[in-house]
Amino acid sequence: MLEDKNPQRTPLEELGEFGLIDHLTKSFTTTQPSTIKGISDDAAVMEFGDLQTVMTTDLLVEGVHFDLAYAPLKHLGYKAVVVNLSDVSAMNAKPTQITVSIAVSNRFPLEALEELYAGIGLACKRYGVDLVGGDTTSSTKGLLISVTALGVAPKNDIVYRNQAKPNDLLVVTGDLGGAYLGLQVLEREKEVFKVNPNNQPDLAPYAYIVERQLKPEARTDIPELLKELEVKPTAMIDISDGLSSEILHLCKGSKVGCNLYEDKIPLDPQVISTSEEFELNSTMVALSGGEDYELLFTISQDDYPKIKGNPHLSVIGHMTEEKEGAHLVTRAQTKIPLEARGWNAMKS
Amino acid sequence: MLEDKNPQRTPLEELGEFGLIDHLTKSFTTTQPSTIKGISDDAAVMEFGDLQTVMTTDLLVEGVHFDLAYAPLKHLGYKAVVVNLSDVSAMNAKPTQITVSIAVSNRFPLEALEELYAGIGLACKRYGVDLVGGDTTSSTKGLLISVTALGVAPKNDIVYRNQAKPNDLLVVTGDLGGAYLGLQVLEREKEVFKVNPNNQPDLAPYAYIVERQLKPEARTDIPELLKELEVKPTAMIDISDGLSSEILHLCKGSKVGCNLYEDKIPLDPQVISTSEEFELNSTMVALSGGEDYELLFTISQDDYPKIKGNPHLSVIGHMTEEKEGAHLVTRAQTKIPLEARGWNAMKS
């Protein structure tokens, strides 16, 4: 009864996720002396005393971010924590505490939530973080999980995404594309299951990529490794949306361009074979797949000897002047502009 | 396809909200040296450097916590922030930063979210806190808002809910019962509106209680006031669920009993007149109504002269030995055991 009867209505799809956040928060300014960095990085940064504290939060919605038909609740709980720890790692900080809130409809029995919290507990133990709070409430439909993570780092250790310089090397951890292909496998098996519920899927040939999808790990080891190697990245981000999207975030944030070399992108053999099986281009899978939760960062060329040959790290390109733009240099030495492709643009 | 076909199923209703949180988190321990207090108070407490940091989080679900038929989105955004700041105040800390995550179905146009964020922004400005992060995602149904707040306090200033002592005085800020009655008025008008959409409700006689429901304020002034008065409460909690429920939390946390005096409970004249109109017992409304976001705390009797006569504070009872239990002493000098009554138990 208090509503305007003739409101303007702009569909949300017109903006997309990042456009929406930017739009909604553009008029917000920060005033607290302890706020070092607000919205615009993987996590917020606060300074309390001698340490800097980072905070990040994520919301996972059933039917949008996960499908309980193939995501066991224990894995889901684990993953919900991991994706936040990954954001803390991407700030070069050490995750310390989390809060977990859930909204849940009454179609879920207690045992389902116990499974979920078993996964949350497993992640807390694996990564040495403390669950320090949360909220549980009922929902009118489905399950929703909201996790917030805190982390700490000594002053000057935090790495943002806006300090990459031309000629810096672009480095990625681990390998890419597995999580997306794992999802393709699981979705295919779900369709098979619908036709014949007695069919037992043989997921063994896909064990690595299915685990990348269902039980990803956060690279909390990387900030420690970088400290040991005495390398402070100039910029860092985690790969939640796909390599090309994250590179473009680094380029935009740092006002630089980039050359990414196709032949340097690290791919697991299972990613290559499964891409072939699904008739997908494995480079496109790595560029657009997302959910790998590896770290992408830039370092000064002077630091190259320190990381050379490290099995966790692959140099995949270098930054350029902004005006040169961001490009993929293919195996055929062709330069293609990098685009933040969506998940539907991947059929080869 | 990975699900157990014959799982045990315990309906969530069997546990209730607090039982559920306790049950799900009972096996969690904390290991980070910076974690001072995990789950079990209004907010978690961390120690980074010389300051202590508190963190709290809340989840609001459409159809569970709010009804957009009478809660304007701007007020909803404001309230979503306030309820978290209230938790920070209840730790005797100063709120500094928040993150806001929303899940929203595509029935909401952008303008609706702009309204919501206008309310969030208003609360940030009013309380001097910074929005430092968040997440927006689509939902399959309705609107869901998750807010996390951080706050700080010098070491030793934080007040928990477990240090009340027998003979301590029980003190409450402001007045009680307004928010619940405001909701009754709004729900009545919604029914009237359904019958005759052209009917314009006259809410003027209910202005105070409707505002208590739609646009509550957090008592961030109270930690400052207590500092000025040189009073450190022995225990403190905010009143989100109703006075009796919060008193029982203090008693349980501090292992004490309590005598609450009916004739001392502060009530606004509008609460008294509207209770009569709705044939509700105003004491029961104050005891069980909830959502007033006032602070409830205990102080040593030695501190009584410091708070005596302060217009913000009412002494409503005193703590006793645990074995004496928690009681309401009625106007007729009868002692009735305090119970954490639900919202449906209030018809007089």
From TrEMBL, chains A, B:
Mg(2+) 5 binds at residue 241. One of its GO terms (biological process) is thiamine diphosphate biosynthetic process. It catalyses: thiamine phosphate + ATP = thiamine diphosphate + ADP. The keyword Secreted does not apply. GO terms for molecular function: ATP binding; magnesium ion binding; thiamine-phosphate kinase activity. Residues 41-153 form the PurM-like N-terminal domain. Pfam families: AIRS (PF00586), AIRS_C (PF02769). Keywords: ATP-binding, Kinase, Magnesium, Metal-binding, Nucleotide-binding, Thiamine biosynthesis, Transferase. This is Thiamine-monophosphate kinase. It comes from Robertkochia marina.
